[in-house]
Write a structure and sequence with these properties.
The complex is a heterodimer of chains A (547) and B (285).
Chain A: H1 4-19, E1 26-27, E2 33-34, E3 38-40, E4 47-49, E5 57-63, H2 68-88, E6 97-103, H3 109-119, E7 124-126, H4 131-135, E8 143-148, E9 155-162, H5 168-176, H6 194-200, E10 203-215, E11 219-232, E12 235-250, E13 263-280, E14 284-294, H7 299-312, E15 324-337, E16 341-353, E17 358-359, E18 373-374, E19 378-393, E20 396-407, E21 413-423, E22 428-439, E23 443-455, E24 460-471, E25 488-500, E26 504-517, E27 534-546
Parallel strand pairs in A: 5-6, 6-7
Antiparallel strand pairs in A: 1-9, 2-9, 3-4, 5-8, 8-9, 10-11, 10-27, 11-12, 12-13, 13-14, 14-15, 15-16, 16-19, 17-18, 19-20, 20-21, 21-22, 22-23, 23-24, 24-25, 25-26, 26-27
Chain B: H1 2-24, H2 26-29, E1 45-48, E2 52-53, E3 59-60, E4 65-67, E5 75-81, H3 86-105, E6 115-121, H4 129-139, E7 143-146, H5 157-160, E8 167-172, E9 184-190, H6 197-208, E10 219-226, E11 229-235, E12 241-247, E13 254-260, E14 266-270, E15 279-283
Parallel strand pairs in B: 5-6, 6-7
Antiparallel strand pairs in B: 1-4, 1-7, 2-3, 5-8, 8-9, 10-11, 11-14, 12-13, 12-15
The chains are: A alpha+beta (547), B alpha+beta (285).
Chain lengths: 547, 285
Amino acid sequence: MSRTRRFDAVTALVAATFCGFLGVATTQAAPAVVEDFSLPRWPDGPVVKLSDFAGQIVVLDFFAYWCAPCRLASKEIEEGIQKHYAAQRGNPHGVPVRVLSINIERDNPAQTKKFIRETGLEFVLNDFDDALLAKFGGAATPFLVVLDGARGPGFRVVYQSSGFDGTRPLRSVIDATQPPKTSARRELNGPLPTAIAGTTTPLTQKAEADFEGLLSSDIQLTGTTLRYDWKKGGTEWRAVFSYNTIDLDYKPFTRFDVLTQPRSIHEDYFGGRASVRQALGDRLAWLGAVGTYDGFRSFRSVWLDDFYRQRFSGDPLYFPSNPQGFNASTGLRWEYQPTTGFAEANFAYAYDQVSPGWDLPGGTPQNPTPPLEHGRDILHTYAPGLKFENVLTSRVRALHEFQLAITSGRDPRYIYRGYVNVALGERWTCRASGGYTQEDPEFEAWFAGATLEYELTPRWFLNVSGRYYTDTGEVEDPAVPSSAAPGLQTWQIGGGLRYAGGRHSFKLYAAPHFARYEPLDLGTREFTHLYRDRDWFLLQAAWAVEF
Amino acid sequence: MKHTLIKRLANLWTRTLLLALAATQGVELADAATYRVGDIATNFSFVARRQFTRPDGTVVPAGATVRLHDLAGRVVFFEWFAVWCPFCVAAAPQVDAGITDWYAARNGNPHGVPVLHVAVNQEPRSTYRTQTDNFINQQGFGIVVNDYDSTSTNKVRFMFQSSGQPIFAVINCVTNSPTHQPWQILVNHLGYGDTDFNVELANFRAAIDQVQAPVPAPLLSGARMVGFDFEFTLQTRPGRSYRVQGSDNLTDWTTLRTITGSNTPIIFRDTNAPPARRFYRAVTP
């Protein structure tokens, strides 16, 4: 029975746990008084001091002209914060709000000028040596800080974020900032009361729908995913529901097989998953997830299930399969460098009831007619993993994942995956990924992929992306018919469109996808029509809304 | 996790113990002896799966016992199969083309020895009966026998191989061949092979083609005295070697000359014939 595919599902599960929390990091910074600073006004104007804005709420928006997400962030902040509160003459408690846009790029002032013009920035300061950015622990842009000067003297950090999540969280913090009542004056030099910090915490919710179709001449696969995220304070919940369909035309390889007949098969798959992330203090978060599913997880297992069912269902020892399973994972995420360095340790367990392979042994003189045999139909997988996410420079982010997976009756599998995001220039972003997997006795797999994205407008993005995968296939035993897949190569190159608005976002991606197998061993010849080279068409669409 | 690790270690330890135990009793682990090429097969028996007509015209009804010696006079190619065995399924049409049709088109092997194909079904379970019959019809097998009787147990198969299928066996059933002993095993092959089964089939044919037909006895005629010499005519097969022998008592024979056969009659003259009686004979080889 398949080793590769079974594993893929487990990997996917673990990967899902990891990827689920690759979002933007937001921290509740300790409300210490910020040291006063002074920066020159752009392009070479007078020096401006923070204390010039005493008594106000100051929003710092660090940007660089080549930072694609900054373009959207700066524009929205200028309109949704600076102009919004200016029109209202301050926040609901009458505290004035001032956005200071801070340019960190010394070179190409013409480009910066263009950026400022296009985003409409009103008040720009220069921080060429990233000194101020570093002071707040930031390394990558966009980087946002909200300073509360209403309860002066001095300013306190009430919000900071690496990345831009919309103006909503900023407004929640700004709207909740009040000038002190006279009776509370004595608390001014102490820490902020927790009750106030609590009320400033914004609630964000996000719903997302994904659709994916993978179509070939004899096999059609679809996957639909509905996701709901709920985030308040230090707690994040995520619920995911998946529905997949598999349609395939089963065809026997008649030269080796006279027991099975052609057939059209349809299978449904349902999956559900819930995960939570709970902050434990400033730097630590606990991760937990549980999931369950019912149905075949790959067209390969559907094909093989029908193959064995047709061959052996007349045998009194045969039993039909009922693929289903559940899984659980837990982990810790540690922000070991504020907003730039994260480490995550994770442990996952999966229970899978699978469709086993069947075999009728030929017998020996001692046992001339042995009964029908089957492979493992219950699998336990234990998968510990480590992950490191780092903001290397203001233009480069990297993520490394190391994982070990131990599945019943098999050798341990070692997995590495790496991802790098690079801001290439004013409007270009590159996301590259690569990975390696190894399992004894002889399985190895590699993949590499890259996406190049071009910012058409601050909200519209065009991308091209390609991916290549190859593996060595499973070890074959020529003496026994084996359903293990031979070596495989797949590649795809496609293009897509992405829209990232304030609340809504969607994307569309289409790519031809090619799968090529190595020649089949004698022991796998029966599966000629399963391990057939196929040309697929991949279509992905996703839509998300925040509220 | 930990639990599994302990179980694995225990498992490993048990295996090591078992291996050590097995090593001390190596004899018991060895496979039961199976036929090798050159061995003489016993007069084993199958059961006719369906009716067929023997080359001598005898009709063998379904269910009748078919013994090896019933197939005398031919080189017999046995092919064991099970319908669920992919390699048996793949081999069948190739055997049909490379053995059955091959020799039918050539009236036997190069020495004119007829070659008979016998398909042997090894799967006794009733679950597979219909599928087996369909397969037999689809392949157009001629003689089909079962390697089991009411006991549902394969017997002959395990004389050739201790496990596995398909098995291909070739037996010389020509009782008076000059090259091979009666019931001598020429081929005993397991499996479809790793590369090209047609290569295996060519090897099988090479073995089959070595079996020569029985040679008719040389005919002696035209005996007469020519002066003091005694002379007679031999009719021989071309190319064969004959020894002409003489004896005074029909018990002790002396080779007088070795001659090579020819299409034309050969005249033998004994220039040293004794005055008393002498008996003559020619033997081959």
